[in-house]
Amino acid sequence: MPVEELQAAHCDALLRFFAGLPEGDLTFIEDEVTDPGTVRGWASGEGAGGRWVAVDDGPDDGPVVTGYVAVRPLPGWSDHVGEVRLVVSPARRGTGLGRELARRALVEAVRSGLSKLVVEIVAEQGAALALFTDLGFTGEALLVDHIRDRGGRLRDLMVLAHHVHRTWEGMDTVGVADELASAGD
């Protein structure tokens, strides 16, 4: 399954992807991902950073998006930092797709010159925590009772970070250095 840079041709499939997510998943996505204007803006290049989708061939109505990842550079004095946002279809979790998308985000962030990446994870999301720590992210903060889910329950939020220059050696372990080298050929 290819991972492709988000294009206008992906908009309808991406909107179907977000609309099909369980309510619990939507609770923890900051953007208005079910708003067509938001998604179409991303595809037209609005906002800084990059966005990629995992795409399968669909039946008759075009491609099917099964995952989404974005790297959004932070503004101002933190413009060397990128925030990673990753969502995988429940049907594709545990298949390595999240890892593939996260690796793409890491590679593209390094290519664009970012020196630090951060990702926010709800503390109970053990699989996401494992995925990002395997890619060299480490814990930087635990924010207790920091978010409220749609049911009104308070949840802890973990902030993980990947310091590109400090963890370059670790990138060899996950194959990112090889991917960066081959992309330059």
Please, could you describe this protein's structure?
With 185 residues, the chain is an alpha+beta fold. The protein has seven helices and seven strands. Helix 4 (97-111) packs across helix 7 (176-183). It is globular. The mean pLDDT is 84.
Q: What is the strand content?
A: 25-35%
Element order: H for helix, E for strand = EHHHEEEHEHEEHH
Helix and strand composition category: alpha+beta
Average pLDDT works out at: 84
Q: Give unreliable regions as ranges.
A: none
How many strand elements? 7
Terminal CA distance reads 23 Å
The shape, in one word, is globular
- Order of strands, widest sheet: 1-2-3-4-5-7-6
Helix content: 25-40%
Total of DSSP H or I helical runs spanning 4+ residues: 7
Rg (CA only): 16 Å
Concise synopsis of the structure shown:
This protein is α+β, with helices and mostly antiparallel strands. The chain has helices at residues 11-19, 23-27, 36-43, 97-111, 126-134, 168-174, 176-183, and strands spanning 3-5, 50-56, 64-73, 81-88, 116-122, 138-148, 154-163.
